[in-house]
Amino acid sequence: MATQGMEQPHVQRPRGKKPSRGRKPADAAPLTAYLFMAPYLVLFSIFILIPVVFGIWVSLHNWDPLIPVKPWVGLQNYLDLFTPGSTTFGPFWNSMEATGKFTLYSVPLLVVIPLLIALMLNQEFRGRNFFRATYFAPYVLGVAVVGILWRFLLSPNAGLVNYYLGALGLPDNTPWITDLPWAWISLVGVTVWWTLGFNAVIYLAGLQDIDPALYDAAKVDGANRWQRFLNVTLPGLRPVLLFVITVTILASANMFGQSYIITKGAPGEETTTAIWYIAEQGLRFFKMGPAAAMSYVLALALAVVSLANFALFRYRGD
Amino acid sequence: MTQQTVSTEPKSGRNPRRLLGLIPSYAALILLTLVFVAPLLWMVSTSLKPNYLTTRFPPQWIPQTLSNEGYSTILTTSSGNPVLQWFLNSLIAASAHTMLVLVTASMAAYALARMHFRGKNLMFVVIVLTLVIPQFVFLIGNYLIVQYLGWLDTLVAVIVPGAAGAFGVFFLRQFFLSLPLELEEAALIDGANRLQIFLRIVLPLSKAPLATLAVLSFLTNWNDFLWPVYVLLSPESLTLQPGLAILQSSYTTNYTVIMAGGVLASIPVLLIYIFTQRYIIEGVSRSGVKG
């Protein structure tokens, strides 16, 4: 139960059951199969496989596409990232810190709030599909739309947020997008507003998969609402919870557009995220070697966090 | 788990005590609706005002003076920001991308679901493994490849590379596996070849997952931001999302113009959402439970 969900072998199981069925003679023409695979495999090789491997090759060079000579530097680009005082050390770890902070602040909110909303929507009442659809709606908008809209709403003088805060008798001059900690509060808040519906929909599907008989049995045993939540709902949601946390961490680590548009990295470089710094270094200043190295370091960091998360879930389950 | 006892509690909400209990829930739900809808309404409202009214307080949710200042500015082709061109570019790119995904992913998924060939399991495992690699790992490599192919600053750069993603293949393969084999077997016996079976039997039975994949691909491509920011350079080749960032920088406080751009970028996706909401929400739900 705990690992059901994202692991491949489980998905493949039903397939293995019927190898003897349906393998009719026409199946035996592998050429047909390769022709069906070919268009996708071409795309997959050129834009997935080659970039991953080629990126490693680039990270071992001083690679500037505008300069024909691309000197081999071995692991120097990686070593620089871990050598205080190198040109990349400071800004890179600053941007990693920004991404880390954003992940740390946004993931708990994006795990808990959508769960509460999904629990509310999981009751039977009129109009619940309408509410579900409404909360999901911002998610279909691009980050650019969300960014320009909230930059306007959060503008200290021209924005509605400060106006309505003032109308409620609260401070009406908060520098939402130019100062700390407000810039983080804004970026996290906007991201929650934008993507909450996605997680809520996933939770809701998970809640509807829990056998109602379990709730009835718990009621018969005299469990109150809170006890039913702890002993029926949460265990039933475990695989979904793991999925939501994993996907949300990944999305947070990819954060780029919100900072790019809403805070423009301000104040200073405080909200310049790792992805943004990597993209600027590699694709704007063409320092592709260091940028490629950074992207692998970030990926590794992410893998460690994800594995820790998986391990935690497995451990808790035993 | 297997015992399916029917709940005796009335669930219809007709019970007055239950209805009363729902009032706090309804209050919370309606408040939340406001939080999600009001910003979008403000965007529309601002886009319809003359700019001098956009920052006047108390806010006019329903503009007393209507103006086409915003829309006429962005739709005028003579400006340095050809927003209409961006809109068309986005439409072309997202449509082409969607077609490419549907054709390549459905063919590969069918082969993986129903055919036997050497290397199949290895291919499938490698394809699925790439699902867990974060996008930014491909960034530098893909940029160099796109540059090598001469695609920088062209729409091809935002149409093709994204179609290599493994999600579509994985998603459709799952569905094809769930189709009953009997129909395909019968057609085989009748002498149909694989292509005919694929086109006449499998695809028509797969309208719902194909629609889901089409809608998700279109939305993803339409909303893509980081990649086009770096591979599309000249004003006339931009798509709408990076275009909005430029509009924002060049019109800083001309909110009516900026919000008009936002509305233009939102209309297609919101329309698609309204009409295909079921497919989108189904697709997302399934990704959590089974994906």
Describe, in plain words, how this protein is organized in 3D:
The complex is a heterodimer of chains A (318) and B (291). Chain A contains 13 helices and no strands. Chain A is mostly helical and 318 residues long. Chain A has one domain (78-317): MetI-like fold (Orthogonal Bundle), CATH 1.10.3720. Chain A is globular. Chain B is mainly α. Chain B is built from 13 helices and no strands. Chain B has helices spanning 16-47, 69-75, 83-114, 120-129, 139-148, 156-159, 167-178, 181-189, 194-205, 207-223, 226-231, 240-251, 255-289. In chain B, helix 12 runs antiparallel to helix 13 (255-289). The radius of gyration of chain B is 24 Å and the shape is globular. Chain B starts with 15 loop residues before the first helix and ends with a helix. The relative contact order of chain B is 0.13. Chains A and B meet through helix 1, helix 2, helix 5, helix 6 and helix 8 of A and helix 1, helix 3, helix 4, helix 5 and helix 7 of B.
Brief account:
The complex is a heterodimer of chains A (318) and B (291). Helix content of chain A is 69%, strand content 0%. Chain A has 318 residues and is an all-alpha fold.
Question: What structural category do the secondary elements of chain B indicate?
Answer: mainly alpha
Report the total helices of chain B. 13
**CATH architectural name of the largest domain in chain B:** Orthogonal Bundle
CATH superfamily of the largest domain in chain B: MetI-like
**Sheet having the most strands of chain A:** none
Name the beta content range of chain B.
Answer: under 5%
The CATH class designation of chain A is: Mainly Alpha
The CATH class of the largest domain in chain B is Mainly Alpha
Low-pLDDT segments, ≥5 res of chain A: 1-26
Helix proportion of residues of chain B, in percent?
55-70%
